[in-house]
Design goal:
Number of helices: 7
Helix content: 40-55%
Structural class: mainly alpha
Oligomer: single chain
Order of helices and strands: EEEEHHEHHHHH
Largest sheet: 3 strands, antiparallel
Strand content: 5-15%
Number of strands: 5
């Protein structure tokens, strides 16, 4: 399968997943915060949920949503696998992080799957709360996450692999192939 760089969004968002919009000073909903600069070698990204007044549009893309399931998908290891595949940069990507999000082939979730993702995201937030870092990006830019936080992310990955119909021991290549296949189906 050819994993060419995807530069423009052409249908992959599905269901009720909102696209990343141009920066605004405030939103009515909570906002998922995606750093504009992503370190592509990271296994997980520092995705956060913040109230509108705390979002600095110069550093982050904000995504107005009330879906913690979206946070779960972005907090999984599947999103960085996708970002590495569609980016033409090996260390960091900048504004392209919006394209990486907008092109991600989000699954259509059942209520049970949505609830499972929300529960796992709650566990990640709880695991983060006991870490003493000034910035979340400092926590995620280490060589290795603290064990309790890594376990919370791995629990989330298990749920998401099941949602995508992949075995728990799926390799990055198998995950990427499934994501690309879903992407191809969405752009038809």
């Amino acid at each position: 399968m050819d994993f060419t760089v995807i530069k423009n969004r052409s249908k992959p968002l599905s269901g009720d997943i909102p696209p990343i919009l141009s920066p605004k000073n405030s939103w009515d909903l909570i906002s998922v915060v995606i750093p504009k600069r992503l370190r592509t070698q990271n296994h997980y990204f520092a995705i956060e949920v913040l109230p509108p007044e705390q979002i600095d549009g110069s550093e982050f893309h904000s995504l107005p949503t009330d879906s913690l399931a979206v946070v779960g998908i972005l907090s999984s290891s599947l999103f960085p696998i996708w970002v590495r595949a569609i980016s033409d940069r090996s260390i960091t990507i900048g504004e392209e992080s919006a394209n990486a999000y907008n092109n991600f082939p989000f699954p259509d979730l059942t209520k049970a799957q949505n609830k499972a993702l929300e529960d796992k995201v709650g566990n990640i937030f709880q695991a983060r709360s006991v870490c003493s870092y000034n910035k979340l990006s400092d926590l995620y830019n280490q060589d290795q996450l603290p064990e309790h936080l890594l376990m919370a992310h791995e629990d989330l990955d298990e749920v998401l692999l099941e949602i995508f119909g992949l075995p728990q021991e799926a390799s990055n290549e198998e995950i990427l192939e499934a994501l690309m296949s879903r992407y191809a189906g969405l752009i038809k």
